[in-house]
Amino acid sequence: MRAALRFGLALMVAVAAPVAIAQQPAGKGGPITPADIMKLDDMRDVALSPDGRTVLFTVQRQMATFGSPHQAIWTVPSDGSAPERPFIVSGGIDNSPRWSPDGKWVAFLSNRSEPLYGEGQPGLSFAMQRSADSDSARERPGEAPEGGSIQLWIMPVSGGGAVPLTALPADVTDFAWSPDGKRIALLSPDSPTAEEKAAKARGEDEVVVDAATHFSRLWILDLNAKTAHRVSPDGVNVSAMDWSPDGVTMALRVADTPGINDYFYHSRLVLFDPETGRIGKTVLEHAAEGPFFSPDGTRIAGASILLPGFISLAPRVYDIKTGKLTSLADHHPGLLTGLRWAPKGDGLLALSFEKTRSKVVRIDPAQGTVTDLAALDGESSDFDIDADGDTIVAQLSSPARPSDVWRVADGSAKPITRLNAEVADWKPGQVEQVSWKNSKDGKTIYGVLVTPPGYVPGTPTKMVVQIHGGPEWAWWSGWLGSWHEWAQMLATHGYVVFLPNPRGSDGQGADFARAARGDWGGMDYRDVMDGVDMLVKRGIADPDRLGIGGWSYGGFMSAWAVTHGDRFKAAVVGAGPVDLVPFARITDTPDFPLGYYGPVSDNIAVYDRSSPARMLDRVHTPVLVLHGGADTRVPTTLGLEFYRGLKMQGKEAQMVTYPGEPHWLHDPAHQKDVQRRVLAWFDSHL
C-alpha cells in the first residue's frame, strides 16, 4: 500500500540464527513460508489503451518493495477474453508503460543493454541538448549511457522491436506524451559534473549535508526533430508534469531543493511555459498529487497535504482564468488518492480507502461531493480509464490473492489476470474486517483479523498484534503476505493475527488521521489495547500468549507496548523511532515529527514523554530489534539505542541490522531473513 514512515550505520550485531523451517509446502496445504512469499510477483503501473481494449501493466519480483531489479511489462485484454502474457521483457527493468494518444505506440522506461541502434532504424539517434544556461556540452547522438541506466524506449503496438529514444547521462525517472503525440516531456536528474568526477577519482568523497545538488530536470523530446532539450530553469526540482490539452502550456510540481523533506512537504504546482522556460503562477502549495489539466484546459487539479500531517491528501481545483482555488471533500471519511479527471471533464475520479477497503469514486469538481462508483473487495493503489470513460481497470489486492488486474463495471470488479496462480492451491488464513470501540471516548475503531486455516470460532489461540507504519497508513482487507506484511505467514503457522487501524491511521478521514498529533502512545495505544481486549473477550486471543511487532511507527508502538505493561510475551521492534528528540533532529524528513509534536526546543518534555527509549527499566518482554543499516528516515542509531539500553539492564534482547538497506528493505535475502526471524522469535516465545 502507500509507503509508511520511510544513511546511518552499517553494522551487524551477532544473534542466534533463526530456527530452520522445514514443513509441508504451502501448495500441498502446509503453512506459508518466507520462501513461498519471496517467490510471489507484484504488479503496478496499470495503463489502459485509449480505445479501452488492452491493459498494460508492470510485473515485478519481490512483494511490497521499490527496488526490484526484475520488472517486465505484461498485457491482457480488458474484457479478460484471453490470459495475460509478457509484452515487453528484458533481463532487467522494463516499467511505466504509457500509450501514445493515438494508441499506436507504447513508450516505457528500461535499463536494457541493447546497443543504441544502427543505420536505417527509424526514430533513433536523438541528439541530447541542454538549454543555453547549462554548462554541460551536447550529448553525442546515439551514445549509450554507462552502467545500465534507465532510459526512455518506444515500441510499436503493431509489432516490431523496442528502440531507445534517449541516452541521457542519468536515469529517466518519469515522462508524459504531449496531446498530439509529437513530443514527450521527461524528467532526469543532473549527472555528476566533471569536477565531481575528478574529485571522486582523487578519493575526495566528502558529503555536504543538505547541499542542494543534482536537481531533477524537465526535458522536452521532439520526436520529429529528434532532439531533446532541457527546459526547466535552474533552482527548482521537478517531480511531476502535465501538458495542457493544446500542448502550449504545462503545469509542474516543483520544490526548491531535491531533498526528500521538500518533496514531501514543500512541493507546489506551478504553470510553466516550455518554450521560454519560465515558471508562472503558483496554483497550489504543499502539493502531494498532480498536476492534472482538465480536458478543456481551463482548470488544474491536484491534492495538497493537510498540515500538520503526513499523507492526508485534500483534492483541490484551480480555475486558470479566475484564479479561484476550490477545496474538495475535506471531510470525506476516507483517503482519496489517484486523482484524475473524468474524460469529459465533468468530474474527478479517485480511489477512496475507507475503513479497510478501497472504492472507485467520483468527485464533483464544484461541490466536492463524493459518489461511489464501485466497491472493491480489497485494497487498490492504481487504476486507469479509457479515452471515452467507458472502461475502468484497477490493480487490486484481495484477501485470498496478491495484486491482479481487475475490470471495474456495474458497481463491482472482477479479476482479469491470475499472476500468482500457485496461491490458488494454498490454504491461507481467513481475512475479515473487525471493529470495536475505544473504552475512553467511545470512538469506533476498525482493523483486520486473520485467523488460521480451519480455525474454530471461540478457540483461544496465540495471537500476534502487528502495527502498521505511519502513523498515517492503514491495514487493509486484502493480501497480507510480503517481507513486511507477516499476517498470512503467521496465520498458517497457527497464529491469530490482529492488525488494528488506531487513530492516526487512514480510512476514517483527515481528522481521524491527525488525531494522534502530540499523543503517540496515548489514545492510539488505547485503541489497540481495547481491540486486544475485545478479541480476548470473544475467546479468539489467548491472553497468556500475546506478541506484538511492527515496522517504523509499528516498531515505535511495539516498543511502547513493552514499556507499558507485561501483557505481551514477545515483541519485534522494526526500524522504530523510539527516542523522539534525536529522531526529530536526525531524520531526513524533519517536518514529519514537527507536524506531530512541534518545535523540538519548545517541546522537549513532550517528546520525551512519548519516547519508549526513556522507559527501558519497565521492560520485561523479550525484544527483537530489526533495522536497515543505511536508514535515513529512522537512523539505525535509534534501534541500537533501544537494544543497547535493554542489554545494559540485563534484559533479553537481540538486534539485527541489514547493511546498505534504507527504511524500506530492498534486498530479497534481507527480506526473507526478516520473515524467518519474526516467525522464529514468536515461535520461541509464544
From TrEMBL:
UniProt region (Disordered), positions on chain: 129-149
UniProt lineage: Bacteria, Pseudomonadati, Pseudomonadota, Alphaproteobacteria, Sphingomonadales
Pfam families: PD40 (PF07676), Peptidase_S9 (PF00326)
Domain Peptidase S9 prolyl oligopeptidase catalytic, residue spans: 487-686
Signal peptide residue numbers: 1-22
Keywords assigned by UniProt, alphabetized: Hydrolase, Protease, Serine protease, Signal
Composition bias, Basic and acidic residues: 132-143
Name recorded for this polypeptide: S9 family peptidase
InterPro entries membership: Peptidase_S9_cat (IPR001375), WD40 (IPR011659)
